[in-house]
Amino acid sequence: MLYSHIDVIVPANEKEAYAALDSYRDEIRVVAGSTDISVMLKDGRIRESKFLDLSHLKDLRYIKAQRDGRIHIGAGTTYGDCARDHRLRREASILLQAIETIGAPPLRNIATVAGNLANASPAGDSIPPLFVLDAHVVLESVSGRREIPIDAFFSSYRKTVREPNELIREVAFRPIRRGEIAFFKKLGLRRANAISVASVALWARLEMGRVIETRIALGAVAPTVIRARRTETMLTGTQPTMERIREVAKCCAEESHPISDIRGSASYRRQAIEALIYMGLVEATPSLQNRKSR
Question: What is the dihedral of CA 66, 167, 90, 97, to 10 degrees?
């Protein structure tokens, strides 16, 4: 399909957007930054005959804290908006760690977090941090609104549970608080503008140097981003000593289910996961940092 064969619908407001989605359903694709569209057209992955362009709807572009204690990011919010937001830098630095590895600044100024979710690639760099931040995806349509935990949002490779008439309205997650650590680590084939070969995101709550609760997400090593739940259990309730971190890193690599492709073999990806979580935990654990400085 060529651009000339596609009708672009530009709604004046959200109500018109929901009406268009409800009318055309499987015939229409929602776009905002459209950073992947050229590639998808070239690969023949676009079947829809219409685009719903939301890039100009300012009501979908926001980052704000709500009374529920969570941070809410609207569907039209770009990566650049996130990178410039002081609240996210203070309370969700793990998300910014991921965003800063995505493309170049011009791309980050048009690409959106919601677009990364809708694209549903297991290599989507903003997705593992949202997993460990316990994010929820808010979907809206003419029929109403529903909220889905992010680890239930992806059904299979590049597939989500979003219905054809639903719009990703926002993503909401809890901020990182005192006594918690979080990090995102990624391996690409070059230093910048690279798709992930493998990635790891980790959040943990510590008390007196002991891990009380943790969430670990792995990217680009399975059909979807996955939680490393066996590794989480191994780490929870323990003190992150160097020996324990080595065991955790090995367990995390074993939980991945990578394939071999042009960016790396399955074996290479498992080794990458092991190295990434090892480095991240050593850097993020205060007790180990204090030991290294003595």
Answer: 170
Q: For residues 147 and 171, what is the distance between their CA atoms, to the nearest angstrom?
A: 9
For residue 26, the 8-state DSSP code is G
Evaluate whether 3-119+135-173 and 180-293 have a shared fold. no
Number of Cβ atoms within 10 Å of the Cβ of 239: 12
pLDDT in tens, 64-100: 999 999 999 999 999 999 999 999 999 999 999 999 9
Q: Taking each helix axis as running N to C, give the angle between helix 266-284 and helix 286-293, from 0 to 180 degrees, rounded to the nearest 10.
A: 70
* CA–CA separation, 59 and 288 (whole Å): 45
Q: How many other C-beta atoms are found inside a 10 Å radius of the C-beta of residue 47?
A: 9
CATH of domain 3-119+135-173: 3.30.465.10
| Type of residue found at 66 | Q
Contact criterion met (CB below 8 Å) for 103 and 80: no
pTM of the predicted model as reported, rounded to 2 decimal places: 0.93
The confidence score (pLDDT) of residue 288 equals 58
- Residue 68 in 3-state DSSP? coil
Mean pLDDT of 177-184: 95
Cβ pair 105, 111 in contact under 8 A: no
